Structure prediction request, 291 residues.
Amino acid sequence: MYPRAIENYFAPTDVAEVLTLLQQHGEQAKLLAGGQSLMPLMKLRLAEPQTIIDLNQVAALDDIREENGRLYIGALARHADVATHPLILQSYPLLADAARNIGDPQIRNRGTIAGSLVHADPSADYPPAVMALDGQLVVAKADGGTRTVLIDDFLAGPLMSDIGEDELVTRIEIPAPTPHSGGAYAKHSQVAGDFAIISVAAHITLDPSGICRQASIVVGGVIPKPGRAEQAAGLLQGKILDAPLLTQAGEAAAEEVETEDDVRASAAYRSQLIRVTVPEVVRQASTRAEE
Prediction:
């Protein structure tokens, strides 16, 4: 199926111009970044915008840098850049893991991190990864102000995010990791690069003796949005992460994260995947924390 013809196309060069256009065209406008979510929706006629606002000429929306104790990722940073950026590989490998799991090379070279988060597919790779790292999104408003939203609050449900018609995500912010921290991400899908049947993101902080001081475990591929396995993470804190404890954490995560049947997998199969994947991902995260 072909998309309906659009009436207006704009290619602004700064954020202020984008916000003005959003105000002028309201709900009839859609933002185009990488197009990996918007274009399929338009082809299926699930989205029929009259106006397209192309963000690809907007300056300074694709930078990746560390500043004031935080990682700043511009909204237009491509998946391929997140997967290969030296700063992310060194200090935020969990994000690189997630980016490498997205789609195929063509999708990774076009798709953007903010586009994925705004689309809010519960089976996407970035949401659990950014949640495990306690990320925030910075949203520019039409009145010239900004607001900052925790990723947990930004993801409202399947294909629903906390973004107004006249607002624009400009960057993602993630706190810099403390010493002896490490993260990892893995997913199970029907074929490589597909959406997750389930995914697991974990971020671990150890003390110098190897005792876990902080743990975050997030499970994706579940409805209505990725869920924190807080009981499983709580089991790890204050303890050495040995094999029996990791197995116990996997059992706890499978019990507390609710799963459902769909065309990709049964609820029981998803729970079993959580049970065996959580220990593997936590083990990799703790290994990275020791490096």
About this structure: The domain at 181-290 is CATH 3.30.390.50 (Enolase-like; domain 1). The longest strand covers residues 198-206. The mean pLDDT is 95.
